[in-house]
Design goal:
This protein is of the alpha+beta class. It has a domain of 149 residues: Cyclophilin-like (Cyclophilin, Beta Barrel). The chain is built from four helices and eight strands. The protein has an eight-stranded antiparallel sheet. A hairpin with a 3-residue loop joins strand 3 and strand 4. The protein starts with 44 loop residues before the first strand and ends with a strand. About 7% of the residues have low confidence.
């Protein structure tokens, strides 16, 4: 079975995807860019991943990615994620979990079959964002990842890399510079993350963002820093002890 992956960091790779559906807003709408960094409001539903390395608190965005949020919350409430590991960890990229097999090839959605991507320019793969792992277009199941890349590039460098990728790969370039407002480059330079994973910034493919870590990025960084084998699997298990759905309290 094909492994479900958060895509490679190498921007020059060509991915075999096609454009897919979106959530509430059109994928080219960037009008609320950055809103994912706002804190939850009192009483808002959140998820806490209680890991053996500490707690990760996550805000969800059902108005933009309703299926991804419903899937994640229901799995959490049903105990599906309890006891599972972060089976794939790449420092300065992401940490990935949600596979009951722990191999990167397992897991199902709450509906028993894959569900479609939900893209909006208002939710991007910035550092701390929670996104669906997949093996192609509309192949979302139970696996997810948290983007962990730290800020390290200025906006001009990001833009020049996107242009160079387009020059080398044509419309297969990821990200595609024709789709990226300058404000997006600026925010990636400030916040960090993985710009090449964004569906709204690509002519093809991408990963649905449906949540954002608002507390516990130190835990995410600690998990990202553990020793791994040649398959990026931690040598010592990093375990999601429980995934708790609760409400935010100030």
């Amino acid at each position: 079975m094909k492994k479900i992956l958060a895509l490679s960091l190498v921007l020059s790779l060509c991915f075999c995807f096609v454009l897919s559906g979106c959530g509430k807003d059109d994928k080219t709408d960037f009008s609320k860019l950055g809103m994912q960094f706002e804190m939850p409001t009192e009483g808002e539903e959140i998820v806490i991943l209680h890991t053996n390395m500490g707690d990760i608190k996550i805000r969800l965005f059902p108005e933009y990615a309703p299926k991804a949020v419903e899937n994640f919350k229901t799995h959490a409430k049903n105990g599906y994620y309890d006891g599972l590991t972060f089976h794939r960890v790449i420092n300065d990229f992401m940490i990935q979990g949600g596979d009951p097999d722990g191999t990167g090839s397992g897991g199902k959605s709450i509906w028993g079959s894959a569900f479609e991507d939900e893209f909006t320019g208002n939710l991007l793969n910035f550092r701390g964002s929670l996104a669906m792992a997949n093996s192609g277009v509309n192949t979302n199941g139970s696996q997810f990842f948290i983007n962990q890349s730290k800020p390290k590039n200025n906006a001009s460098l990001l833009k020049n890399r996107a242009i160079a990728s387009k020059n080398a790969n044509g419309d297969k370039a990821t990200p595609h510079p024709d789709l990226i407002p300058d404000a997006v480059y600026d925010m990636y330079a400030e916040k960090g993350g993985n710009i090449h994973l964004d569906g709204p910034l690509r002519k093809e493919g991408g990963h649905t963002v449906f949540g954002q870590v608002f507390e516990g990025m130190d835990v995410v960084d600690a998990i990202a820093g553990v020793s791994v084998d040649s398959n990026d699997k931690p040598l010592s298990d990093v375990i999601i002890k429980t995934a708790e759905v609760t409400t935010y309290k100030k």
